[in-house]
């Protein structure tokens, strides 16, 4: 079995328990395998994105084949156009007033100051987690991400691996994946300290898509009101938005 087949079997849950344990142990010492896993995960995500694009293209083809849209009276079109212009005008004004270029820069500054390096003193954690943290601190983010995602595959309830996998995604610009990790973490109610909502808010500020800022502000307010992890930082950041 070559490495690609072994990796695919691992993430598809087809490896026997003993093989899975050997695979995870190899990830800690075999940098070539870690790089192969990182490539596999990236390629799988790209394939998923391509599949979505294909579905969209097929939808467009079906829409064109279905014939022209029913014509509406000219007076109706004028009313729709006028309403649209009003909404766009008000929306543009609101965005101009509320959105500032400093939001993403503010998030980026916080990320650089607080997540460029991770603490290596996490007592009682598995050796593979420490290996992943070491790779992260060395700047080998793809290798670190492969290790953290492998840990999550083995134990989806591992909140440390969930947070760290999210941080790798955030640092590498995979904001959708980071938000997914942090959102899952933030919904946990069994943790003594949970930074999920704060980190999701931070990622949304960095991503900067429509409505991200509003959702980030809502998450920051939740962190503050519920006294969650990151409260002090949320108070500072929301005051600057």
UniProtKB/TrEMBL annotation:
The keyword Transmembrane appears for this protein: yes
Keyword Transmembrane helix recorded: yes
Family matches, as InterPro entries: TPR-like_helical_dom_sf
Record key words, sorted: Membrane, Transmembrane, Transmembrane helix
Membrane-spanning ranges: 77-96
Taxonomic superkingdom: Bacteria
Protein name: Tetratricopeptide repeat protein
Gene source species: Larkinella humicola
């Amino acid at each position: 079995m070559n490495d690609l087949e072994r990796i695919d079997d691992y993430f598809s849950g087809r490896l026997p328990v003993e093989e899975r344990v050997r695979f995870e142990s190899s990830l800690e010492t075999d940098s070539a395998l870690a790089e192969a896993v990182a490539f596999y995960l990236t390629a799988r995500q790209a394939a998923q994105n391509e599949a979505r694009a294909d579905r969209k293209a097929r939808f467009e083809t079906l829409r064109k084949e279905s014939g022209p849209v029913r014509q509406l009276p000219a007076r109706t079109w004028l009313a729709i156009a006028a309403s649209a212009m009003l909404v766009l005008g008000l929306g543009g004004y609101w965005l101009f007033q509320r959105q500032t270029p400093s939001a993403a820069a503010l998030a980026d500054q916080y990320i650089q100051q607080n997540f460029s390096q991770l603490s290596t003193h996490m007592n009682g954690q598995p050796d593979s987690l420490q290996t992943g943290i070491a790779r992260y601190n060395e700047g080998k983010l793809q290798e670190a991400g492969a290790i953290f995602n492998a840990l999550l595959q083995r134990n989806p309830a591992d909140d440390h691996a969930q947070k760290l996998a999210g941080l790798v995604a955030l640092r590498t610009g995979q904001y959708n994946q980071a938000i997914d990790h942090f959102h899952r973490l933030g919904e946990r109610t069994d943790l003594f300290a949970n930074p999920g909502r704060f980190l999701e808010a931070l990622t949304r500020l960095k991503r900067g898509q429509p409505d991200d800022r509003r959702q980030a502000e809502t998450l920051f307010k939740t962190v503050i009101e519920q006294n969650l992890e990151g409260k002090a930082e949320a108070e500072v950041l929301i005051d600057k938005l």
